[in-house]
Amino acid sequence: MPASRSICSPSAAWAITSNNAMYNSLYFKIILILVIFMITVMCVIGIVLINSVNSFYMNEFTAQIERSFDGQLTDDLTDAMRADGYVEELLKILSSHIGILGIDDYRNYYILDENGSYLDGSDETLGKALQKTPNMIAAMRGEPENRQPLGADFADYAVPLSGNDNTCIIYIKDSMEEMQQFSWMLFSIILYALMFGLIFAIILAFFLSKAITSPIQNLTRGAKLVAAGEFSYELDVHSHDEIGTLTDTFNDMKETLKNTLEEVSGEHQKLETVFTYLHDGVVAFTEDGQMLHINSSFKRLLGSKYDENLTFQRFLDLFGIDYTPKFNVEYVDRQNASDGCNVSDVMFDGKVLDVNFGNIRYTADNASHNGVLAVIHDETGRYELDKSRREFVANVSHEMRTPLTSIKGACETILSDREMDEEMEDFFLHMAVDECDRMTRIVSDLLVLSRLDNKRTQWSISKFDPDAALVHICEVMQMDADAHHHKLIYTAQRGLPEITADKERIEQVVINILSNAIKYTPDGGQINLYSKVVSDGLEIRVKDTGIGIPEEDIPHLFERFYRVEKSRTSETGGTGLGLAIAKEIIEAHGGTISVESQLNEGTTITIWLPIETRLKTVE
Questions:
Q1: Which of 149, 175, 201 is the last residue of a domain?
Q2: Do 362 and 407 belong to one domain?
Q3: pLDDT for 481-527, tens place per residue?
Q4: Residue 326: inside a domain, yes or no?
Q5: pTM, two decimal places
Q6: Contacts of 189 (CB under 8 A, 6+ apart)
């Protein structure tokens, strides 16, 4: 397939460049600042006003109801509680006080029993649909609070009553629709004010920015001429403010720059050579061993050991490089002419470094001299990687050697005893097969980790119901749990949203964690699986009552081949790679996995997954 090419016309390119220049100009930024300021002020005013109206309405509601119940009304209601038909009596009393209570189309009263169930009220339909609120629950406990939380879309008030073993709650609820209509009207007014304010701000910013940017544009044109090597251009000073001072300073700088240009050109080659190695530590020395230049990377490398009077000899001593009379500036100079000079695996402050020496020429006192340039490359990362690889190979070798030894032992036993009875022969053959299966699992897990490490995993991303998937997992794991007499309990938040992820691999992770919980929980234990929405994502928790994990082992739990007890994973058929694979899968989805555990009390593993994964299906 031929490679596609995008063709951009000169006029289109000019338009794009012009737009970028406009957005990056001071003129545009001044207008933008004023517009943002106006929007911010109006938004703050709007929020304060609307919240103040909301707070005033709620406070007024509470104050009105409290005034109503402070007088004769409370005594009448308390007396009515002693009557046999107290509900009808309460209804009559409340009906006669609807004016005092402010009962209207938006505010209703209800008579509730001690459990918060509807008995009677001013609106039966709304009363039967009442939901329990904090104020209602407090009244049910006999400890009325009647607080109005900020941001609520309703206001309520609950008063508990009792008498002659009769208990009920008088509940007043205001839908606040009237206040919401007023807030919307206030918002519309603020919006119109914001629109007119924006127009005014843009006009004001236009004239203000013109007055500020015009002198700066002249200064910019002069600077471009100087940058092009035109030093004869003189900027005129039209004002005595800061911009005028800046123009004068620019003219002086132009003259100074003209006089020092030759000196800068002479130093250019030296600086270019030194700063070519800015990614590594770079230090240069004169021919008599004095420090000539040093970069910030090398200063950070030295830390507290940095000395402004660092010499070449002190440099060699500091890094533990053997110093001999031959190993001096002249020696390095001669070596650089042939193969150069390199010192590898230099240990310094816990780091592994490579130090490369080279020749540098510099100008001093109108003469050219030879010096030494030392480039220090931090090889700690590569060293640690090599160390990790060696440890990984050693772990793999150890894991493979154990089953191979068992297989070899079983085969040798069978070969050495040709008259072995059939039952014993089957035992050794089955043992060999089991060890082969174990090796197969290790190799399979290693292949999975390799694909995850190299970003070559084929993901099958789809949208699915996590609740149904977790129920299915519990059904699959129930037999294992029953074999150990465990209780396997699944608790899910209602209405879990569908998530987009690799369903099969997420199920693999949860099954692995549940399997570990079943294996490492003494018989008769309990394993809980929870799921709920947390921080715009799905949280899955597996909690067991097992043997727990020592605190010092928790940070290493997701390392490959790491085992809390060297024998227990082997005894249960594990490879030591399951949790490492689980961590890689979850993190590839953009999620997290963590462990909390106390020895002999149990372990909790928490998985968080985003609703939409960043992975894509790979065919």
A1: 175
A2: no
A3: 999 999 999 999 998 999 999 998 899 899 989 999 999 999 999 99
A4: yes
A5: 0.42
A6: none
